[in-house]
Amino acid sequence: MQIKLSNGKSIPMEMHKIKIVQQTNLPPVEARQRCIKEAGYNTFLLRTRDIFLDMLTDSGTNAMSDNQLAAMMQADDAYAGCESFYRLQSAVEDVLGFKYLLPAHQGRAAEHLLAKAFVKPGDVVIMNYHFTTSKAHVDLAGGKVLELYKPGAMQTVSDDPFKGNMDLDKLEEAIRTYGAEKVSYVRMEATTNLIGGQPFSLENLLAVKKITAKHGVPLVFDGSLISENAFFIHEREHPEMSISEIISEMMSVVDIFYMSARKSAAARGGLIATNQKAFFDQILPWVPVYEGFSTYGGMSSREIEAIAVGLREMTDLNVAGSGAEFVEFFVRRLVEEGLPVVTPAGGLACHLDALRFLPDVPQLDFTSGALSAAIYLVSGVRGMERGTVSTDRDENGNNVPAGVELVRMAVPRRLYTMSHIEYTVDRLKWLYEHRDLVKGLRFVEEPPVLRFFFGKMEAIDNWDLKLMEAFIDDFGVNC
Ligand code: F0G
Questions:
Q1: What's the distance, Cα to Cα, between the start and end of the chain in Å?
Q2: Fewest beta carbons within 10 Å, which of 101, 110, 160, 219?
Q3: Which residues face 104 on adjacent strands?
Q4: How close is the Cα of 59 to the center of ligand 1, in Å?
Q5: Class of the CATH domain delimited by 2-58+317-475
Q6: Would you state the pLDDT for residue 40?
Q7: What is the set of active-site residues?
Q8: Is the pLDDT of residue 290 over 90?
Q9: What is the pTM of this model?
Q10: Mean predicted confidence (pLDDT) in 6-27
Q11: How far is Cα 91 from Cα 354, in angstroms, rounded to an integer?
């Protein structure tokens, strides 16, 4: 909820009380410099004991509610037929409207099952945009991903409220070109992650359905961030509709729903749901092969209970907006300070535009990688590189400059407070004012695939030491 203050400004309000806390630690700047150097300037390789605020991801890191924790205590552990599964099934039916449920241990496991069941070599899967794992499973099954977003989707500065929309003309054309029988499914990703957590509109989803239905192509919905997309539809398109109504309307056109339950559902796990028995029957045999029996799907019963409650809770407007409103505040504050950030604010994170933040660091010296290392050094806050390091080399071994060069500062739901955000804004501002001190990175250990996870680098001309000296001049050694 946004609360209007007497000075005319509004702030996001925490509509919850904090009853359990976890101590965090701000290591001094010299320790941070040692840690990031040891981590090869790769924030994935930091240990959480050395991190003050972890903004790497909102996946599996959200604060859980009292009711989720309480529900975990009634977990019913059984290899087959556990009551926890049936409680999740009821929640899926009540909130999403689907009768058939297939559990999976997380989102990518659901994607694996879908690819196994539906993608044949030579097929295409059409998406509003890919997510890393959603594309990997289509590729591994011998299919090809086609992304049909609007031209403006890649613009980091924009006032388009629905950059996640699918281009409907391109969709018609693609289905005609490839032939409906070659299109395994059309996948709409709620609050499109890799373009900055940008939603699609209800109007666009309904229009996509008209086209897929006409051609007999299944419509798959990645609902990992479903409550955020519903929240944006409420804010930007249909203020008269409740979150539940928006979710019901969205789900009424979906053939197969799946989600990572680590985000909107504020737990850890995943699921697939549908109302069509034929789709259920096609996927079911693969669940015990890859996940576990069909009433636990690789999840602990405790997490299944937490998801069941999390799904019901995310339909509350204050819960659905709990992350997005903090992201909006974070983005607004950075814009006020003149820092380059992706607009409009998206759903899971604030995204810094690294090429405008560090204009003198060439993309092939890994601008976003250098920026995420520098942010940790000056603040103890961990973000995630989403740029050229995350884009593996091409088949000739050349680096490929990423389409957008970003650093993602994720805002897990209900985890951080206003002072955490203000602190981060302040240190980002200080870094921006000292941006001439930051140079690029060079690989010293480079894995052949998904190098952003384990790759190690060095700082060109030891820029980290110069940045640390400037920081100590302003703040001393203890900050
Ligand atoms: N779909 C979307 C839209 C996601 O954001 C993710 C994960 C997945 C599928 C895969 O789910 O992690 O449970 O296997 N996103 C995480 C992130 C990894 O950090 O944004 P998973």
A1: 33
A2: 160
A3: 270
A4: 7
A5: alpha beta
A6: 98
A7: 79, 131-132, 222, 263, 386, 452
A8: yes
A9: 0.97
A10: 96
A11: 41
